[in-house]
Write a structure and sequence with these properties.
This protein is an alpha+beta fold. The protein has eight helices and ten strands. The structure holds zinc ion.
Amino acid sequence: MGDRAVGQVITDVELGSIAVLKTYSPQPSSLVGRPIDGVSRHGKFIDVDVDGTHLIFHLARAGWLRWSEKIPKTRVRPGKSPIALRVRLSDESGFDLTEAGTRKGLAAYVVENANEVPGVARLGPDPLDDDFTEDAFASILSEHNKQIKGLLRDQSVIAGVGNAYSDEILHVAKTSPFAMAPKLSAEQVHTVYLALRETLLGAVAVAHGKPAAELKDAKRSGMRVHGRTGEDCPVCGDVVREVSFADTSLQYCATCQTGGKPLADRRMSKLLK
Ligand SMILES: [Zn+2]
């Protein structure tokens, strides 16, 4: 979307859902007549720089962005459309933010400074940035006395790695999700760093140019262990195991990652007590 949107002037911003807009001032209408200078990403937030003011959105799990070369002429009206927000551009293209079902996670903000958006300010560095070097990664690990799995998916430490990709990264790196970050050897740090970059670059390549509808399938079919409990590890053939938590779970291969020893599943052990 970035390539197409930059340089265009916003001709209208239409709100289909008042609830999606989390800020009151500046008004979305203040973006009209101004050019898009850039589109960037802060972790899971997309930041559209409109002549120094920012339209920022977080798509959450059920939201998606649809780019149209020719955006429909019909105006989006509050409460009358599944489209939460529509932005029209000067060449008649534009984009819609839509949210499926009843999950209301989609959020949009209009702010003068990206740091005003809660969640953006406390985001850690983007691991695909050029200055995210192995040294930078090593010092992050040494400063956080946490398990590597939790650390990788902590958005305030490293931006943009979720539950799924942290499972994948640790499987590629043959590292236990429960390994304590500061205790990793220099060699392990090197391996995890490479796995992190490789996995995220792969994810970007898979996503590039795909319509949102195909993206979820493409993402899932590219997973080695995440979401594959009970299936065969593609590397060694051992069964993919799971550790469950209250609201989430992780997947891993014991042979590849934990010296063949299954990790304790707290939920299971609780049930057995
Ligand atoms: Zn394996």
